[in-house]
Design goal:
Helices cover 81% and strands 0% of the residues. By secondary structure, it is mostly helical.
C-alpha cells in the first residue's frame, strides 16, 4: 500500500521539482553573465586605476592648502585603493546590465500590464541612480570639501589618507544614488496600494523632517552635505507624488473605459438575445 502511494506521488514531486530546478539554473546562468561582464569591465579599467583615482580625488585636491597632498598610511594602500576603486566602478558601470538580467529573470512571471509599467520604472531607476552620483560629484563634493578643508584648527595640516577618502566618497555616492530613487519608491508604494497620494501629501511635514534625518545619518556631520541631500529628497518626493497621481488617474480612466466596454458588450448580448427570442416567438406566416 505504501509502495503504491509513493509511486503515485513521485510523478507529482518530479513535476514540481523541474520548474524549481529550471529557475535555479536560469538564476545561476544570469549570475555568471553578471560576474563575467563585471570582470570584463574591470579588466579594461584596471590599467587606468590610478588615473581613475586621480579623477575622483580632484574635488578634494582643488581645495587642499598649497603644499599639501594626500597620503597613504598603510603599506598596501597605494595598490589596493585604486584596485578597489576600479572594482566598484566596474560594478557601477555594469549596473544597467545587472538590472536587465534581474528584469529578464522576473519578467516571465509578470502580467502584460505589469511589464508595461515595470520596465519604465526600472529604466528610470537606473537613470536616477546615475544622476544622484553625478549630483554628488559635481555639486556636493566641491562644497563639502571646500568647507571641510577650511575648518581645520591652526597648526593642523590637512593630508587625507587615500583609503579613507575612497570610503568617504563611495558612501556619498551610494547615499545620493539611493536618495534619488525616492520618486520610484513613492510611485511603487502608491501603485501597490500601500498608501495614496492624498495620505502622503497630508504627511508632507513628517517626510521633510525624515529627509533631513536621513541626510544627517548618511552624510558627514556638516550642514552643507546634509541639506544638499535632504532638499533633493524632498523635491524628488514631490515629483514622485505628482507622477503617482498621474498614473492613478490613467488607471482609473482605463478601468472606467473597460467597464464601459463590458457594459456595452453585455447590452449588445442582451439585445441580441431578446431579438432572437422575439424571432422565435413570432408565428411563422406559413
Amino acid at each position: 500500500m505504501s509502495e503504491h502511494n509513493s509511486s503515485q506521488s513521485s510523478p507529482d514531486t518530479e513535476t514540481q521539482e523541474q520548474p524549481f530546478l529550471s529557475h535555479l539554473f536560469e538564476l545561476r546562468d544570469r549570475l555568471i553573465r553578471i560576474v563575467l561582464v563585471v570582470i570584463l569591465i574591470f579588466a579594461g579599467l584596471f590599467s587606468f586605476a590610478n588615473e581613475l583615482y586621480h579623477l575622483l580625488a580632484t574635488p578634494l585636491m582643488a581645495h587642499l592648502p598649497e603644499g599639501s597632498s594626500m597620503i597613504a598610511t598603510e603599506v598596501a594602500s597605494p595598490f589596493l585603493t585604486p584596485f578597489k576603486l576600479a572594482l566598484v566602478a566596474s560594478i557601477f558601470m555594469a549596473m544597467p546590465f545587472i538590472l536587465y538580467q534581474a528584469w529578464a529573470f522576473i519578467a516571465p512571471g509578470l502580467y502584460k500590464h505589469e511589464k508595461r509599467l515595470a520596465f519604465p520604472l526600472l529604466f528610470s531607476s537606473i537613470i536616477l541612480f546615475y544622476v544622484g552620483m553625478a549630483f554628488a560629484f559635481y555639486v556636493v563634493f566641491p562644497l563639502v570639501f571646500g568647507f571641510l578643508t577650511t575648518t581645520a584648527p591652526e597648526g593642523v595640516a590637512v593630508m587625507t589618507d587615500i583609503s579613507k577618502y575612497l570610503d568617504f566618497v563611495l558612501k556619498l555616492f551610494f547615499a545620493f544614488g539611493v536618495a534619488f530613487e525616492v520618486p520610484i519608491a513613492t510611485i511603487l508604494l502608491v501603485l501597490a496600494g500601500v498608501t495614496t497620494p492624498d495620505d502622503l501629501a497630508a504627511k508632507r511635514a513628517y517626510i521633510i523632517v525624515a529627509a533631513f534625518v536621513v541626510g544627517m545619518l548618511l552624510t558627514p556631520p556638516d550642514v552643507i552635505s546634509q541639506t544638499l541631500l535632504a532638499l533633493p529628497m524632498w523635491l524628488l518626493f514631490e515629483a514622485g507624488l505628482f507622477f503617482s497621481r498621474l498614473l492613478l488617474r490613467q488607471r482609473e480612466e482605463k478601468n472606467e473605459e473597460t467597464e464601459h466596454n463590458a457594459d456595452k458588450d453585455l447590452d449588445d448580448e442582451l439585445e441580441k438575445a431578446i431579438a432572437e427570442e422575439e424571432k422565435l416567438n413570432t408565428p411563422s406566416k406559413d
